[in-house]
Amino acid sequence: MKFWLPGFAATVFIRLAAPVWANMAVVSPQFSDLCRANRTECTRIGTHAKVSTELIYQVFEAERTRNFDALASQLEAIKLLTGAEQIQIVNRRLPLSQFFPVQQSLVFGGYALLGRKITKRGDEIGKAEYTVFVKGVFSELEDPNDIIASIQGIPDRLSAQSNVQLHQGMRNYAQEIFNSPPFQDLLTEILTFQQQGNIPIEITLSGHSLGGSCIVLAALMSDRGVKLENMNVITFGAPLFLQRGFVDRYQKLGERIVRVEVDGDMLNYEVDSPLLLVYRALGYLPLGKLLRGFVPNTKYKMLQAEVLSLSRQQPHQENLNRIVNLQLQAILERVQIHVYSYRNFYNLSRLD
């Protein structure tokens, strides 16, 4: 069974409609209220929106095309934005040559940026700050890692030691990052600082779409001993991919998660979502505190209402053609909301 095809479609449309949609505005009274009440949290969400929904894709493209000048420039931009002293790339993707013949044991994907900043007070460590950005879907056929990870939608166990169930592809994507040497080094350092007991530690994980698997990373970190009070997790337009057992086991982690969603996103858990029946059939549930926004002047609801009206009329070829056309227009708009809207939380975070 294959799911998350809308995620694949979204990345295809990135290349088709970027000039029109790239500056899609977002309104979020809830986020505006948060920014007035908690400037630190507002800036955190805005900064991670910029990196997780835009800059990380540019880093990946520069690395993929071996444009090393652009790669260095993008990494410096992320350092400047986040204050990180170091940025490491975790790239656990299989080359195309290893995809065939496709074996069930193959694990696809795994791409993240790890940021690190250690502040010192004299000879002592004053604070340790870490940022983890997990990349969403990239759909070029010469690199099908993300496509395959996205459509591996059947629930599976988190690990051999854990019976909680979640989306198999999302689990694999996160585990590839978690098991990488750079991430294990980062984890060891965090645990060492925790044991010292007097070093403030701040870890923020975020991701867009497939990058919502950063929740799994956080769960694996907590299982290894990272304190929940040291972690914050932010997802942007993530699909639902966790079953009840996972949600119940990691309920306290859920209190550290902000789940940013924009109305109309293809992957949302809404009544008119194209994926609602899939989520219900697989028992997938949300985890985290919801932060909502919307794009003004959208047309997808009007288009969907017209489709419903036409579908009640006597069927004939002209009506059927019109229904198909309207449905495609509505889906395209919802895909663009998923792809482009979240980056504008950065702009909202900078408003006075």
Summarize the structure.
The protein has helices at 5-21, 29-37, 39-64, 68-82, 145-151, 168-178, 181-196, 214-223, 244-249, 251-254, 276-282, 300-311, 317-340, 344-349; strands at residues 86-91, 111-121, 124-134, 155-159, 162-167, 201-208, 231-236, 257-262, 289-293. By secondary structure, it is of the alpha/beta class.
Got a strand count? 9
Tell me the β content. Answer: 15-25%
Question: What structural class do the secondary elements suggest?
Answer: alpha/beta
The portion of residues assigned to helices is: 40-55%
Quaternary structure of the protein? single chain
Radius of gyration: 21 Å
- Poorly predicted tracts of residues: 1-17
Average pLDDT confidence is 87
**Count of alpha and pi helical runs:** 14
Largest sheet: 7 strands, mixed
Distance between the first and last residues' Cα: 48 Å
Strand order of the largest sheet: 1-2-3-6-7-8-9
What sequence of helices (H) and strands (E) makes up the elements?
HHHHEEEHEEHHEHEHHEHEHHH
**Global geometry:** globular
Describe the structure.
The chain is an alpha/beta fold and 352 residues long. The chain is built from 14 helices and nine strands. It has helices spanning 5-21, 29-37, 39-64, 68-82, 145-151, 168-178, 181-196, 214-223, 244-249, 251-254, 276-282, 300-311, 317-340, 344-349; strands at residues 86-91, 111-121, 124-134, 155-159, 162-167, 201-208, 231-236, 257-262, 289-293. The strands form two sheets. It has a seven-stranded mixed β-sheet with strand order 1-2-3-6-7-8-9, with helices on both faces. It has a two-stranded antiparallel sheet with strand order 4-5. Helix 11 (276-282) links the parallel strand 8 (257-262) and strand 9 (289-293). Helix 2 packs across helix 3, helix 3 (39-64) runs antiparallel to helix 4 and helix 12 runs antiparallel to helix 13 (317-340). The radius of gyration is 21 Å and the shape is globular. The relative contact order is 0.16.
